[in-house]
Design a protein that fits this description.
The protein is mainly alpha-helical and 148 residues long. The protein has 5 helices and no strands. Helix 1 packs parallel to helix 3 and helix 2 packs antiparallel against helix 3. The longest helix has 33 residues. The radius of gyration is 21 Å and the shape is flat.
Length: 148
């Protein structure tokens, strides 16, 4: 595996790549969010069915994620920008039932994902038998987690 030699221009090239990647990913996420917000505003018959609205929100987020992955952009930044745009513009065009149901749905999915991550970390920590446990670090970690 060969790589290009590092030159004095490498930091500037990395910075330019990072900036363009972030810019285009954010632009894609904002475009996806604005398209769905305008869809909710223009086609009011979509707001008759709360389940359809919630599914459209998740599909829009997933589509921006997939499109940015296909374009080799940052999918997480694109999804974050889409979510922020949807929360600012699409939220006000949802029906009252969809506002409540989408909040509950997203909160439940977030709670389940957080629980999965902590269970996974807890279970994998026991698979490292050759590592030594640092009791002060574990106690400090538990205290920090309890305070947050």
């Amino acid at each position: 595996m060969s790589s290009a030699p590092l030159t004095w221009m490498a930091p500037y090239e990395i910075g330019a790549d990072f900036t363009s990647l972030t810019f285009y990913s954010t632009l894609l996420g904002i475009a996806g969010g604005l398209i769905l917000a305008s869809l909710f505003k223009t086609f009011r018959h979509v707001t008759k069915y709360p389940i359809h609205e919630i599914i459209l929100i998740f599909v829009c987020g997933f589509m921006t994620y997939l499109i940015s992955e296909m374009l080799k952009l940052s999918a997480i930044v694109s999804l974050l920008a889409c979510g922020i745009c949807l929360s600012h513009y699409a939220w006000y065009n949802l029906s009252p039932q969809s506002k409540q149901n989408s909040s509950v749905t997203v909160e439940a999915i977030g709670f389940a994902a957080e629980a999965f991550v902590f269970v996974y970390i807890g279970l994998t920590s026991f698979s490292y038998n050759e590592l030594e446990w640092c009791l002060p670090f574990c106690v400090c970690e538990i205290l920090v987690a309890a305070c947050c």
